[in-house]
Design a protein that fits this description.
The chain is built from 19 helices and no strands. By secondary structure, the chain is mainly α.
């Protein structure tokens, strides 16, 4: 429990407010803003090159995130006495045990390994891009000219695996080392964000930008542009729900709602300002190319970004073992076997194996799809897996919100009701449902239609990953249900 000064309630409350606010802000503002603004097919491209559409989507998602946060804050009181305040526990409590099991399986087998893989590969990929940009600007040649494309790909893949294993080993050897690394990287990660904010405005104001997103040609507005941009923007915001579980250690519960809501509002405003700054100096929305006219500054800027990406890999490596442990100990099959604890060695070994398998699968899919194109790309499946994961994650979020709203009717679980929360919850669920349906149309059906018309296999990446996640998750869920029923039947005989 956080408790620094019992004699001064105001100081305690202020401290706890700031802790929750900073944690909420820190969890959300991470690699997502870089990943989805790091290439020519990022958020701006998804919005039809229209910066106004892209900004509208950032604002809209910020509002929806705030509304979702209110629903989860209302339900968080029911989690105060739970040993594991994970999202799967929310799902079990407000929906049912089966949905809790589905949520746990998806996050353990698919989503967290996906995020860890993205972080590791994107870190190395961005590092090589930064060096590439510097070499091209100063010497007129790239890394490929010295090493060759295939050697570079192999080197990047090996380094990505080394990064993943090194950080996992660091967290295995010492929790303190992992936490210290996270604190340092979390502080440093605001340097490039501030550079983007101030540098973008300064470059534009000084007249050094001749063409940007606002004065470039963009496509005629289509509704599809809004929903295409939704997917990458939702990924950038993903993680804010995790901060709800932080309230468990807070003594003054009255600061929970305002702190978390303030945190997500600050994230939304910060993202909007960052996006405007990027669009002011870039015509393609690529944040990694903001300072390309200044090679040394650009290299330093991009290498700092690379360093801060360690926060994502480290955070998910640290969280993953805890999520695995919570998921296993809450698993009905293991409960029947009376298993009450799992060794640290087994947890970290499981995390490493799942992460490595995920990385190998993503790399294999990427290379098999792009190898004959003349430009092999090992990262493309990882990049689009973020969009695929969001298609599943927001269904999970929406179903849990539905369960929270249903609890208002049944009053089965005591919660801290927020004035107007029920109406806002209905509006939020309605918006999420419509968004999810349209995103599925664009992500799955529309991509399959485009492949049929163009024979471009890159359109199949998201559908393939979606079916892969579904098959893996469903298989594990059915196996788990089978084993649970079997052990219960054996014990009853």
């Amino acid at each position: 429990m956080i408790n620094i000064n019992k004699k001064n309630k105001f100081i305690n409350k202020t401290y706890e407010f700031l802790v929750l606010f900073s944690m909420t802000f820190g969890i959300v503002v991470g690699s997502g803003i870089y990943l989805k603004n790091s290439s020519e097919d990022g958020v701006l491209a998804a919005a039809g090159k229209n910066p106004y559409v892209a900004l509208a989507v950032w604002i809209f998602v910020g509002v929806v995130a705030c509304m979702m946060m209110l629903s989860y804050i209302e339900a968080s009181k029911a989690m105060e006495k739970e040993e594991h305040s994970t999202l799967s526990k929310f799902a079990e409590k407000f929906v049912n045990k089966k949905w809790g099991s589905v949520t746990a399986i998806f996050f353990v087998v698919c989503y967290i390994p996906l995020l860890t893989t993205i972080g590791s590969l994107f870190l190395v990929h961005s590092c090589f891009q930064a060096i590439d940009g510097f070499l091209i600007s100063t010497k007129g040649k790239s890394i490929d000219d010295d090493l060759g494309k295939q050697t570079r790909i192999i080197l990047e893949i090996v380094l990505g695996i080394v990064v993943l294993l090194s950080i996992q080993f660091l967290n295995y050897k010492s929790d303190k080392s992992g936490k210290l690394l996270q604190i340092v990287c979390s502080i440093v990660k605001f340097i490039p964000l501030i550079m983007i904010l101030i540098g973008g405005i300064a470059l534009y104001s000084s007249g050094q930008v001749s063409q940007n997103a606002f004065n470039s040609h963009f496509e005629k507005f289509k509704v599809n542009h809004l929903f295409s941009a939704l997917i990458p923007v939702l990924f950038a915001f993903d993680g804010f729900i995790d901060s709800v579980t932080l309230q468990k250690d807070i003594e003054h519960k009255e600061v929970v709602a305002p702190a978390m809501l303030s945190g997500i509002i600050a994230c939304a405003l910060f993202y909007i300002l960052i996006t405007v700054s990027i669009f002011l100096v870039s015509d393609d929305g690529n944040v990694l190319q903001m300072f390309k006219k200044y090679p040394i500054l650009s290299l330093i800027f991009n290498l700092i970004i690379v360093f801060t990406l360690i926060t994502s890999v480290n955070a998910y490596s640290n969280v993953f073992t805890k999520v695995i442990k919570a998921a296993l100990l809450e698993n009905s099959y293991l409960k029947e076997l009376k298993i009450t604890d799992i060794s640290k060695n087994k947890l970290h070994l499981s995390a490493v194996l799942i992460n490595l398998i995920t990385m190998i699968v993503f790399i294999s899919i990427s290379l098999s799809v792009t190898w004959n194109s003349g430009s092999p790309d090992y990262f493309i499946a990882s990049y689009y897996s973020a969009d695929t994961g969001i298609l599943f994650v927001f269904i999970i979020y929406a179903v849990i919100i539905g369960g929270i709203l249903n609890n208002r009717r049944t009053k089965k679980i005591p919660v801290k009701k927020i004035k107007g929360g029920f109406v806002l919850g209905i509006i939020t669920l309605s918006l999420l449902t419509f968004m999810i349906i349209y995103m599925y149309y664009l992500g799955i059906i529309d991509n399959i239609v485009k492949f049929a018309n163009t024979k471009d296999t890159s359109y199949l990446i998201i559908p393939i990953l979606w079916f892969l996640f579904l098959i893996i998750g469903l298989s594990i869920y059915l196996f788990n249900e089978y084993k649970t029923k079997k052990i219960i039947k054996e014990q009853s005989n």
